[in-house]
């Protein structure tokens, strides 16, 4: 596991394939119940997040969130010495939930099994962050609390600052990325695209 973690940071062109687990973990689930719960949350918040961000930006944020939350999970697991699988799907879903709750904190939410009990989206987000922080600090193994926190913090950051910093300025960023990749490919002796 440690070897895989460090290969993400190498500049060797042959290591590109090793980054795929972080992206593919965005679609990974522990069980059928885990998948059903995640899909219900995604379905519940999908229309709100797509109306906030649009389809293309939503896909970019969702995939980025899966990679970021998986990375946060890996770092937390390496720090604690627990080498269990990291499943980025929950972190990506948590990004969606946190983004919507941050943009619409006064929206009323309810739990499917307790529809008569409503609460604000802002209160729900605070409770989820508190629960996952406690879970991470106390070493609970019920959920991947680090992935949840990474996803929630990324979602809050993105709708507050990231949209302006990244999405609205994506053209210069994409151009800089392509230039950087072209320079690195040329230095490594590999084929240039």
UniProtKB/TrEMBL annotation:
Major location category of this protein: mitochondrion
UniProt keyword list: Hydrolase, Membrane, Mitochondrion, Mitochondrion inner membrane, Transit peptide, Transmembrane, Transmembrane helix
Localization in the cell: Mitochondrion inner membrane
Entry's Gene Ontology cellular component terms: mitochondrial inner membrane
EC number(s) on file: 3.4.21.105
Transmembrane segments: 21-43, 49-75, 111-131
Top EC class for this record: hydrolase
UniProt membrane topology term: Multi-pass membrane protein
Domain Peptidase S54 rhomboid span(s) in chain numbering: 22-162
Annotated GO biological process: signal peptide processing
Catalytic activity: Cleaves type-1 transmembrane domains using a catalytic dyad composed of serine and histidine that are contributed by different transmembrane domains
Entries under Gene3D superfamilies matching the protein: Rhomboid-like
GO molecular function, one term: serine-type endopeptidase activity
Matching InterPro entries: Peptidase_S54_rhomboid_dom, Rhomboid-like_sf, Rhomboid_protease_S54
Sequence similarity: Belongs to the peptidase S54 family.
Descriptive protein name: rhomboid protease
Organism: Pampusana beccarii
Organism lineage: Eukaryota, Metazoa, Chordata, Craniata, Vertebrata
């Amino acid at each position: 596991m440690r070897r895989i973690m460090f290969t993400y940071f190498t500049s060797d062109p042959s290591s590109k394939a090793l980054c795929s687990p972080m992206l593919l973990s965005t679609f990974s689930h522990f069980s059928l119940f885990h998948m059903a719960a995640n899909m219900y949350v995604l379905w519940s918040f999908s229309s709100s997040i797509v109306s906030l961000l649009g389809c293309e930006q939503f896909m970019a944020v969702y995939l980025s969130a899966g990679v970021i939350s998986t990375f946060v999970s890996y770092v937390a697991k390496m720090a604690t010495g627990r080498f269990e699988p990291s499943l980025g799907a929950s972190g990506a879903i948590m990004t969606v939930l946190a983004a919507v709750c941050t943009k619409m904190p006064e929206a009323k939410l309810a739990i499917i099994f307790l529809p008569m009990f409503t609460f604000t989206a802002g209160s729900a987000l605070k409770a989820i962050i508190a629960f996952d922080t406690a879970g991470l600090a106390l070493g609970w193994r019920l959920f991947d609390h680090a992935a949840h926190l990474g996803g929630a913090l990324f979602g809050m950051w993105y709708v507050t600052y990231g949209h302006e910093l990244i999405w609205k300025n994506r053209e210069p960023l994409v151009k800089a990325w392509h230039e950087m990749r072209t320079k690195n490919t040329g230095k490594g002796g590999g084929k240039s695209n």
